[in-house]
Write a structure and sequence with these properties.
mainly beta, 5 strands, 103 residues
């Protein structure tokens, strides 16, 4: 019950070289284990783009506990535990790709 008491906000600061951006969510919760650590996000504001909202309401997946049960095991393929949804738009726990052509 990581965020069960109180209210929380989430701010993610990103930097690549000299470029910086941020994403802010006015409500942030991670549900209890019995809910498989489901992610809950509020309203977004920022300069980084709203990639995290795609993962809102998703359960946390790890290599040995893929809650997505898809053909592509996202946590294994992208080498990081995350709130995967048909893999990801944002993956802050995965490998960083510094290729500017990669989306």
């Amino acid at each position: 019950q990581i965020t069960s008491s109180g209210s929380y906000e989430l701010r993610v600061d990103l930097r690549a070289g000299e470029e910086t951006a941020y994403a802010f969510y006015d409500d942030f919760r991670v549900e209890a284990e019995k809910e498989q650590f489901r992610l809950r996000l509020g309203q977004y504001r920022g300069t980084a783009g709203d990639s995290m909202s795609y993962h809102n309401n998703m359960m946390f997946s790890t290599r040995d506990r893929d809650t997505q049960r898809r053909i592509l095991p996202c946590a294994m393929s992208y080498r990081g535990a995350w709130w995967y949804r048909n893999c990801h738009y944002a993956n802050l726990n995965g490998l960083y790709n510094n290729n500017k052509d990669h989306q």
